[in-house]
Amino acid sequence: QVQLVESGGGLVQPGGSLRLSCAASRIIFSIYTMNWYRQAPGQQRELVAGITSGGRTNYADSVKGRFAISRDNAKNTVYLQMNSLKPEDAAVYYCNAQRARNDYWGQGTQVTVSS
Q1: How far apart are CA 83 and CA 66, in angstroms?
Q2: How far apart are the first and last CA of the chain?
Q3: Which of 45, 67, 75, 104 is most buried, by CB atoms within 10 Å?
Q4: DSSP labels for 44-108?
Q5: Which pLDDT score, from 0 to 100, does residue 76 have?
Q6: 3 - beta bridge partners?
Q7: Residues in the chain with pLDDT values less than 70
């Protein structure tokens, strides 16, 4: 059974940084597009950033220049470096692995941005 396990969430002050990690198991990690989504209370889940198997990245406009997604295929792990965090970045962040009809999700990690 595929597992995606997120870590690195927590409470941070506005302007601070966090690095999320997502460790994958039981998939051929290197061939999957890996994405980070987030969902705030009362809002729809939205794509934050994605990285293809070839390393091409894309970002939501709201995080461009502040967030960076990367992957380490040797460790089966995808990262989301989040800098200059704002209160509106607060949400549950989910890791997603996608390839063709295969679509896997982690359990999410909470990010709270508050002074």
Answers
A1: 5
A2: 40
A3: 67
A4: --EEEEEE-TT--EEE-GGGTTTEEEEEETTTTEEEEEE-S--GGG-EEEEEEEEETTEEEE---
A5: 97
A6: 25
A7: none
